[in-house]
User: What shape does this take?
Amino acid sequence: MRLETLAVHAGRKPDPATGAVVPPLHLSTTFLRGEDGSFPHGYIYIRSGNPNRQALEECLKTLEGGSSAITFSSGMAAIMTTFQALSPGDQVLVADDAYYGVGQLLRTHFIPWGLKVNFVDMTDPARVQEALSDETKLVWIETPSNPLLKITDIRHISDLAHQAGAKVVVDGTWTTPVLQRPLELGADLVMHSSTKYFGGHSDLMGGVLIAREDTSFVKQIRTLQINGGAVPSPFDCWLTLRGIQTLPYRMRVHSENAEKIAYFLYTHPAVEQVHYPGLPGHPGHGIATRQMKQFGGMMSIQVKGGAEAAMAVAAKVKIFTRATSLGGTESLIEHRASIEGPQTRTPQNLLRLSIGLEHVEDLIEDLNQALSS
Ligand SMILES: *Cc1c(COP(=O)(O)O)cnc(C)c1O
Assistant: This one.
């Protein structure tokens, strides 16, 4: 079956008890034992399992083409649990332009705990090769990266990592399985913040790891998660499964709108640079064309005139909403450096745009008035 059909049906079936076509929300924290003391429905207690969570995991596993999926209370919980499944002394290579929270988490908690972390420019395979060692256990890729939309060749880096005996995780939040399929390109695990495109309506929080094979490392992650309780609520799972039904169609329009806006901004006199892998001049355009179906709804721009000019544009937009996050139906604009804080390496004149599902001409007119006045 094709992705559009799977998005509607995977993990969903009419409720056998009532015939309800839409899956019921199960809020019960505890489940009945059978006469022999067993758990006939497979559920014991909410932290270890819940029907809405299981349905969502079934759906995500199917969409991504993996053998198992583990859903979490947030994207960061999925990331944290992955690193917790390693041991002090292990080495990990992390994309130097990965989501800001990843670097924060590693610097404040995991490096003091004993993890050896190398932040590497993954757009350059030679640097990855140089940083790999016998101690490397994990290579953490994010492509397109955040916020500069750098493109990493998933297949090439996965080959290098595997030759060194390391596993590969790809943060696929910005692409979803609709636009990019890391497991088919050689990655071992895909991670998503489902707070973004899977949910799709800016009203839930969640994360997921999908594994190509259910290895002992993956089992270790699941055990850690259940023991520690980094699990999603039934309602967040229900909302995510609801959102996923329209995911393929939303991703298509996010990408089409973003591509048109990128071309518009590219020639705008107030714009210094547009970072969007769909533009032929983008350094990762060739690889992105090979490994992505479309180029996604995220971009960043550098405006002429520095931080003040960038802040002024963010203040003048009327349809774009000035807020952090991404992946909802509404377009968002954000000055990244000021939210990331003083340690940031993000250019001060950079604005990150999450292109929503409004009419593209309205979005272009809005950006034009904000940039021109
Ligand atoms: C938002 C985001 C995360 C973190 O997810 P949360 O659900 O906010 O914890 C990780 N990676 C990327 C690329 C993100 O956009």
